[in-house]
């Protein structure tokens, strides 16, 4: 019984750690650049002062609501890519759905500098 308990705990721990690592990776430029046709944007990001800032810092609203919204949207996009049902050519993004700078940029920058 003890061996079974350790086996279940070990498998559960491995799944939990793997899930956390995978979710963290989905917020990196490496992950975002694999599916999107974002070559120029990724190159500009890698040369910018923000190159160490993960994509999610600016493109996902803070809090659990923004995180869930981003993951649901990303899952929808992933399904489109896997099933081949995404639009071609890929339309330009609607940047109107980006979180306002008052919720993202001010985490690192002084609000007076953003005006």
Description of the molecule:
The chain has 115 residues and is mainly alpha-helical. It is 57% helix and 0% strand. The chain has 5 helices and no strands. It is extended and about 60 Å long. The model has no long low-confidence stretch (mean pLDDT 82).
Backbone shape: extended
Beta-strand segment tally: 0
H and E order: HHHHH
Radius of gyration over C-alpha positions, nearest whole angstrom: 18 Å
Spans of at least 5 consecutive residues with low confidence: none
Observed structural traits:
single chain; 115 residues; mainly alpha; 5 helices; 57% helix
Topology, element by element:
Blueprint: H1 2-25, H2 29-35, H3 39-47, H4 55-59, H5 63-83
Task: Provide a brief overview of the structure.
This protein has 115 residues and is mainly alpha-helical. The chain has helices at 2-25, 29-35, 39-47, 55-59, 63-83.
């Amino acid at each position: 019984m003890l061996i079974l308990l350790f086996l279940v705990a070990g498998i559960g721990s491995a799944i939990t750690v793997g899930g956390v690592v995978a979710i963290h990776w989905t917020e990196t430029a490496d992950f975002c650049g694999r599916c999107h046709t974002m070559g120029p944007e990724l190159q500009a990001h890698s040369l910018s002062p923000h190159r160490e800032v993960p994509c999610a810092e600016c493109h996902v609203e803070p809090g659990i609501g923004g995180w869930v919204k981003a993951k649901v949207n990303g899952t929808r996009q992933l399904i489109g890519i896997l099933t081949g049902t995404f639009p071609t050519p890929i339309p330009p993004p609607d940047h109107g759905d980006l979180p306002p700078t008052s919720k993202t940029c001010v985490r690192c920058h002084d609000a007076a500098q953003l005006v």
